Amino acid sequence: MLEEFPVPEPGTGEVLVDVRAAAVNFPDVLLVADAYQVSMPLPFVPGSEFAGHVAAVGEGVSDFVPGDGVFGAVAAGAFAEQVVAPAGQLVRIPEGVGIAEAAAFGVTYRTAYHALRSVAGVRAGDWVVVLGAAGGVGLAAVDLALQLGARVVAAASGPEKLAVCRERGATHVIDYTTEDLRRRIRELTSGGAHVVIDPVGGHWSEQALRGMRWGGVLVTLGFASGAIPAIPLNLVLLKGVTVKGLELRTFGEHAPEQEQRDLAELMALLAAGSVRPRIGARFALADSAAALRFVADRKALGKVVIDMGP
Fold it and tell me: Which CATH number fits domain 108-250: 3.30.930.10, 1.10.20.10, 3.40.50.720, 3.40.50.300?
């Protein structure tokens, strides 16, 4: 059910955006369920990622003017016709990039690129295994690992999801609901993965770690399976692997120089047309609850977008 709220006013350093499209991310589901790392005071409007046009600017804002096409993210409030965001969290939409593509790009591609580039240090020729590879973060990781020159093994559930991963250029695919993940990783990579990108968690994490070669890096991004894995540390010791975590919300606080470098490189890829998010489903604003359920049930093939209408 939709409700009417007063038009928000941009404060100092803030921008009011007419939202044309918003994207659903798994943390939105967790925030609604009060199961995220932070809680949102009630009541709140869900949604973090959006794209649209500047409607008004607050005092001290000189980088944007009304009419500019922008995209960005906030903690909450994006599933609405208008949202206020700090100017520093907005980016101009490059020429040739659609509104829905812009809305679907920032969160998942930033997460995947930071994980690959800064946290795991992926190099050309590395074998990168991506779990949950047909989801938003997973498919972004497939795209970006290929851009970095890696060889990609995409692991997902079911033939439809694997077909999407093949379309995006994955070197190999694994159905981890029917195949032995550890054994298949070692077979396909001739001895083990250099890097594992894991937004899924559950028992798949340990199986993927067992499929790594000595000295590899496993990056945990979240637990879409609903289960937080308990990794036996003897495996870490014997395999000499490094287990790292990445939380997009705080990455810039701890690694500001890496964040700025990654964002510049990522925007160059977007502007050049080298990467584009795959939008697998679209919902109307009135159906936002169904969009959240769609993502919660892991039905998404790429990103899910909410259209605000004309």
Answer: 3.40.50.720
The set of residues, in sequence order, having a beta carbon less than 8 Å from that of 54 and lying 6+ positions away, is 15, 16, 17, 18, 64, 65, 66, 67, 68, 70
Compute and round to an integer the Cα radius of gyration of the chain.
19
Q: Is 44 helix (H, G, I), strand (E, B) or coil?
A: coil
**Which residues does residue 57 pair with via DSSP β-bridges, in sequence order?**
15
Tens digits of residue pLDDT in 92-114: 999 999 999 999 999 999 999 99
- pTM flag (> 0.85): yes
The domain 14-105+276-307 having CATH identifier 3.40.50.2300: the answer here is no
**Looking at residue 23, what is its pLDDT?**
97
Closest C-alpha among 308, 300, 1 to residue 164: 300
The CA–CA distances, whole Å, from 120 to 130, 170, 196, 197 equal 13, 19, 9, 9
What six digits make up the tokens of 259? 């964040």
Domain ranges of the chain: 14-105+276-307, 108-250
In the prediction, which pLDDT does 60 show? 95
Separation CA 141–CA 128 (nearest Å): 9
Tell me the pairing of strands 49-57 and 14-24. Answer: antiparallel
Give 4's contacts (C-beta < 8 A, 6+ positions apart).
none
